[in-house]
Amino acid sequence: MKRYGSVIGVNEEKKAEYIRLHAAVWPEILATITACNIRNYSIFLKEPENILFSYFEYVGDDFEGDMAKMAADPKTQEWWDVCKPCQRPFETRAEGEWWADIREVFHHD
């Protein structure tokens, strides 16, 4: 199992919509997340800065393959199309990232 964290901004004018969307995530999206070996997935909101922090645990053995599978899913693409306008990526994110990956510097079980 590997832990992943990432961050992105949320647009003030779209924040309520983003929260509403995530209060009732489409069942197909949840099924795809599970099928792609993601567990313990959470998104946190830091206000008033409007920063989203995502955390999940990956339990598979082909992360790139599972992420490609997720990205190819038509329902996931539709979900991303409604969520992305709410988000404000960081200018400092790495090339190819939407959510900026962050490095784990401490963990304790």
Unreliable residue runs? none
Share of helix, binned: 25-40%
Return the string of H and E elements: EHHEEHHEE
Class by SSE composition? alpha+beta
CATH A-level architecture = 2-Layer Sandwich
Q: How far apart are the first and last residues' alpha carbons, in Å?
A: 13 Å
Tally of individual helices: 4
CATH class: Alpha Beta
Sheet of most strands = 5 strands, antiparallel
The CATH homologous superfamily is termed Dimeric alpha+beta barrel
Q: Given the C-alpha coordinates, what overall shape results?
A: globular
Strand residue percentage: 25-35%
Number of strands: 5
Cα gyration radius (Å): 14 Å
Describe the protein's architecture and organization.
- It is globular and about 40 Å long.
- The chain is built from four helices and five strands, in the order βααββααββ.
- Strands 1, 2, 3, 4 and 5 form a five-stranded antiparallel beta sheet that branches.
- β2 and β3 (51-58) form a beta hairpin.
- The two termini are 13 Å apart.
- The chain has a single domain (2-97), classed as Dimeric alpha+beta barrel (Alpha-Beta Plaits).
- 35% of the residues lie in helices and 28% in strands.
- The protein has 109 residues and is an alpha+beta fold.
- The mean pLDDT is 97.
What are its keywords?
5 strands, alpha+beta, Alpha-Beta Plaits, 28% strand, 109 residues
